[in-house]
Structure formats: C-alpha cells, structure tokens
Amino acid sequence: MKLLRFGEPGTEKPGVLVGNDIVDVSSYGEDFGEKFFGTDGIARLATWLQQHPDLPRVKQPVRLGAPFERPSKIICIGLNYSDHAKETGAALPKEPIIFFKATTALVGPNDTLVIPRNSTKTDWEVELAVVIGKKATYVSAEESMNYVAGYCVHNDYSEREFQLERGGQWVKGKSCDTFAPMGPYMVTRDEIKDINNVKLWLKVNGKTYQDGTTANMVFNVAFLVSYVSQFMTLLPGDVISTGTPAGVGLGFNPPIYIKPGDVVELGIDGMGEQRQVAKAY
Predict the structure, then answer these.
(1) Any bridge partners for residue 14, and if so which?
(2) For residue 87, is pLDDT > 90?
C-alpha cells in the first residue's frame, strides 16, 4: 500500500494511491500519525478499504504533503555510504553517526525549497527514509524489521556553512524550514523486495549528480533501526533517514551549491519522485 496526504499545508487529508488514482480515505477517521501506526493502522486500513470499494477519487493535480503527520523526531545517519564518505574526505565510521533534524523542516515532496537567510552553501542529499511502525526500545537487528512500517524519499537538505563552519552539532545546518521534503508517498514494507538494494538518484537542473544504491550503505536498515533503539525509544511514525550516496554539492571541486531558480529532482525505485524549485528567503 502507498499512503499519502493531500491538500494545503496544515489541512492535509489522508489518501491511498491506487494505480495513478488518489483515493480519499479521510472518512476512515484517522490521519497517518503516531496513533495510527502504533495501533496496527496499516492492516486496519487495508481491511477497511476492502469493505469500501467506492471511495471518492481526488481530482488531480493536487498538492501533496508529507505522507505522515509530523513525527516526534527525525533521526539522520551521517556518512553511511562508502562513496559519500570518500568524497568528503572522511573516514568510514566505525559506528553510525547520529544527528537530529528539526521536525519543523518537514514539508511536502514538491514544495518550494527556501534557501535560508544568509545561506551561501545550501546542498542536496537524496536519502531513503525509514518510518517506524511500533514502539521500539532495545530491539535486536534480527527482529528490528518487524518495527518498520515503510519507506519514503527524503531530500536531506543541508546548509554546509551552518553545518560545518559555525561550531557545535550538524543539526544547525540541517533544520531550516523546507529542509525535509518527504514523499510523495510512504510505501509499506511489504512492497519493497530488498530494501538493501534499491536505486536512488538526484538531478539539479536536469543534470544527474547522485546515482547510487542502498547496497553501498555502510550500515544496513535492520542494523540502523536496532542501533538507534539502543540509545532512544523510537515511537510509531518516527523517521530514520539513512544517509546519502556520493554526488552532493560539497563533494565537487569547486563545490556546487543551490541558487534561486534551481530545480532539484530526485527519486528512489518503487517510492516515487520529488521536485523542488529553490527560492531565496
């Protein structure tokens, strides 16, 4: 199943993608958030859909929001692709690097990217985002996939000066408004045959910069879910963003950063595509 949310910011309604049609499931009475995921909502919704075959279709085009309500936390994994670590000159991490991204950065997959005030180094990062399906504390790698609800595309935008040159933690360069477009939909775990071997890509103004595969992850999805749960409780609807392959703007000589008017397109096989147009704050 592919879960999505449609409508204007702040008033999105839940929907399901069936073929190319968006089916309005707002009459089900639940949005896609912590309560929904934590009470076996995906299975409950699937049963309900079978009982209601004549639900209204949504007239398109329509704005898509993030495919779930704002989560309690967005957890990001740094330098988790061997080729990306190499391009930044960093050593491969011996354990996952964890940092947070403010949940206020969350936006829809095609919403405008706002380049922050005083930014000169806004960068892109296509990433696989993992959505947690039930409360997870101290879970093992062998059982951790049972705690995954599904996956979606995430563009982990980063302001490199804020991140690397202003002291402190990376979160400062990761949390600006519009820096976490998610979607277009969340695919449930059963739809992806091998999450550790899917292609992800990103283009800027039509030119391909990132063309990678999750097979190059240093730490795979099952390990990451287990690892993060050793340090914090993961709640239903929480997001773990699993890192980016080579080809970020920082990795070029000289670096390439986003300018107003630039068009960023990205996608992951089986999870759809995003498109953002950049504008100055």
Answers:
(1) 5
(2) no
